[in-house]
Design a protein that fits this description.
By secondary structure, the protein is of the alpha+beta class. It has helices spanning about 1-30, 45-70, 225-235; strands spanning about 75-80, 85-90, 95-100, 110-115, 120-130, 135-140, 160-170, 170-185, 190-195, 205, 210-220, 220-225. It has one domain: Beta Barrel (Thrombin, subunit H), CATH 2.40.10.120. It is globular.
Length: about 240
């Protein structure tokens, strides 16, 4: 009887020892051999963790960029013989230069520009019907501004976002949408963003909060008047 118990105890410890040997020595040795390399498992969780971390970092960068530039966005309203128009634009300089689409400002209409929750007096300085851009000076200073993206650094698939102001029952509301640069051309940049026409003129920014261009809406798709055209028009 005692011999049987000792035998069982012996086999028990032999089994534990064999398991430890196989797990710590034998398996690591064989898994590094070419025949077994495809069965390596230890790196899989690392890739998942890295993807999750990158996703969190990108979304944090987007949130920070939105906070950085949201005060630079202006609202535009016009009414007259040509109809009623609403859209957005951008503060260019702290002393009151703003940029918007010329098509939002038909001649003979009454205009109003919402700048940091105020409706200041204004003067149209310059129009370009071909580029569809208008430069306006408002009587307001100390405004928030942002930098321009480098046109040479724009690449396909680059992450971008727009911020615009829409008016719901007369009340302004900021709207954000995000996407990527779908195609690059000299005259217009195509995105994968779909939006309503009320967001025409909304500035498009890169993930660093730098201006990529102004949006123009065609058939529900957001195209971008590129920063190169804007710089030529403004003279910066």
């Amino acid at each position: 009887m005692k011999k049987d118990i000792l035998k069982i105890i012996f086999l028990f410890f032999v089994g534990i020892g064999g398991g430890i040997f196989a797990d710590q020595i034998l398996w690591p040795y064989f898994i590094e051999r070419p025949l077994f390399y495809q069965y390596r498992l230890e790196k899989s969780p690392v890739y998942v963790t890295e993807r999750k971390e990158i996703y969190i970092q990108e979304n944090l960068a987007l949130t920070e960029a939105i906070e950085k530039v949201e005060k630079t966005v202006i609202g535009v309203k016009s009414s007259g013989p040509a109809g009623f128009f609403e859209g957005s634009g951008l503060v260019l300089t702290s002393d009151g230069l703003i940029l918007t689409l010329n098509s939002l400002l038909p001649r003979g209409s009454n205009f109003a520009f919402l700048v940091e929750e105020e409706w200041p007096n204004w003067q149209i300085l310059k129009r370009d019907y071909q580029k569809d851009l208008a430069l306006v000076k408002v009587e307001k200073t100390g405004l928030s501004t942002t930098g321009f993206a480098d046109p040479e650094e724009l690449v396909l698939g680059q992450r971008i976002f727009l911020i615009g102001i829409v008016f719901e029952k007369g009340e302004p509301k900021k709207v954000v949408n995000q996407g990527i640069l779908r195609s690059l051309a000299k005259d217009f940049i195509e995105t994968n963003i779909s939006e309503k026409s009320a967001l025409a003129g909304a500035p498009i920014f890169n993930i660093e909060g730098r201006l990529v261009g102004l949006s123009t809406i065609k058939n529900g798709k957001v195209l971008v008047i590129p920063i190169s055209k804007i710089k030529d028009f403004v003279g910066f």
